[in-house]
Design brief:
With about 450 residues, this protein is of the alpha+beta class. Helix content is about 55%, strand content about 15%. The protein starts with a helix and ends with a strand. Its main location: membrane.
């Protein structure tokens, strides 16, 4: 075989090795969601690659047969093609034996370098950069190779399966997608500029619905505007003007005995039509949804969907009303900073190292604002006020403070045992992370 033919054969072998390398990496790097989308659009090659991802054993067996066969042939042909010429060239300056040895080493290095660069590094970088595009191009050729090498593929695949069974390992790819996977993808999208930071936060909030208690989104008992069943017309009209809400609970005697609710639209209609308002009218008072305060936001949404309501009263284990929640409250929790007037913000950042936070702020929002993973005894409270009570082991007083995790939580204002405002300040890095209570 002439030198030209040998060099041409080396190029063919490099090309074959590059094909198997790019086929291997593209299958492993291809995203199933993208392939599924292409298959749904009618691309048969995408459907074929999905099948190969589900059962990749035969596919990778062909790849390894091809890579190893090409590597062996490349070594044989490369040494025979380049070694004589390099030896002859080196004999002009070196003894024959030294020239032969050095010629063999140089031939080996040249051929190995060509294979590393053109048959391994470049194809794999290409496959990683454009996995689905490359995978679709190699799908049919790989299917032909699998059919051509079927007997060898069957033998090696069965041997590999037997070894895996003996070791107790699974060869089936786990393609389950968790909420953590989706959040990781959205965070990567936000860093890349594909998603806005606020959009990424909305997605994260959606996944928190299953773990976030409904109490974190409710209107507290003390802030609920309600009517008594026997309230006169004048009092109802005055309360509507003073406390305009979309929905009002209707109670018998006190707030802990809710008998229904009235929609502000129905009240406004009567006002506009100059009709008297009486809450003893069963046509005006609607049946109210009562839910436990230990439900999650996702569970409350399911309750809303089931009964076709958007308002619920929350009660604790002693049947005392602790607050009310509406569909708008839940959606405001999801949308975060995208909705809601500025004057109702519960967390106000004063500067780079301090925040002014309302005591009833849900602890999840506090963690997010301070970029903390958790606070101690997190299962015992749901708000910042609850955190301070647990840490102080008493009802906090003004100027009481807690040091934890590099932050100082200081009570600024208390109104009738209710913590109104808390100043949170970031301490110096050398501050002790262990909880410290001051009061």
């Amino acid at each position: 075989m002439s030198l030209t033919q040998q060099l041409l054969l080396i190029c063919v072998l490099i090309g074959a090795s590059a094909f198997f390398s790019v086929a291997e990496i593209s299958l492993a790097a291809s995203r199933r969601l993208r392939l599924r989308q292409l298959a749904d659009e009618g691309d048969g090659r995408a459907a074929l690659m999905l099948q190969m991802q589900e059962q990749p054993g035969d596919y990778f067996t062909v790849v390894q047969i091809g890579l190893n066969a090409v590597a062996i042939l490349g070594g044989i042909v490369g040494e025979g093609a380049l070694s004589p010429g390099l030896t002859a060239l080196l004999q002009n300056w070196l003894p024959e034996k030294s020239a032969q040895s050095l010629g063999f080493v140089l031939s080996f290095l040249v051929v190995t370098s060509l294979f590393i660069l053109f048959a391994d590094l470049l194809p794999k970088r290409l496959g990683m950069a454009h996995p689905e595009t490359v995978a679709l191009r190699v799908a049919r050729p790989m299917q032909w190779c699998m059919a051509l090498l079927a007997p060898m593929v069957w033998l090696y695949s069965r041997c590999a399966d037997l070894l895996l069974r003996l070791t107790g390992l699974s060869s089936v790819r786990d393609d389950r997608i968790t909420s953590e996977d989706i959040l990781a993808m959205t965070e990567a999208g936000a860093r890349a500029g594909i998603l806005a930071a606020q959009e990424q936060q909305v997605i994260a909030n959606v996944f928190e619905l299953d773990s976030r208690a409904v109490a974190s989104a409710m209107t507290l008992r003390e802030r609920v505007a309600f009517f008594l069943r026997d309230d006169p017309d004048e009092l109802i009209r005055a309360r509507i003007a003073a406390e305009p809400f979309s929905t009002y609970p209707v109670c018998e005697g006190d707030i802990d005995h809710v008998v229904g609710y009235v929609d502000a639209k129905d009240l406004f209609q009567r006002v506009l039509n100059n009709q008297p308002i009486t809450l003893k009218d069963d046509a005006l008072v609607r049946k109210v949804l009562i839910v436990p305060d230990r439900l999650t936001l996702a569970e409350v949404l399911e309750q809303f969907r089931h009964v076709h309501e958007d308002f619920a009263v929350l009660v604790n284990e002693y049947s005392r009303v602790v607050g009310v929640v509406t569909l708008n409250d839940v959606m405001s929790t999801v949308m975060g900073d995208l909705v809601g007037p500025d004057d109702e913000e519960q967390i106000v950042r004063r500067d780079e190292n301090s925040w002014l936070i309302d005591g009833v702020t849900p602890i999840e929002d506090v963690l997010h604002a301070l970029q903390l993973d958790e606070l101690p005894h997190g299962e015992e409270y749901e708000t910042l006020a609850g955190f301070l009570m647990v840490m102080l082991r008493r009802v906090p007083r003004r100027t009481d403070s807690v040091l934890w995790g590099g932050y100082k939580f200081e009570v600024l204002d208390v109104d009738s045992y209710r913590i109104d405002q808390v100043m949170v300040s970031r301490l110096e890095p050398q501050a002790d992370a262990a909880p410290v209570v001051e009061g």
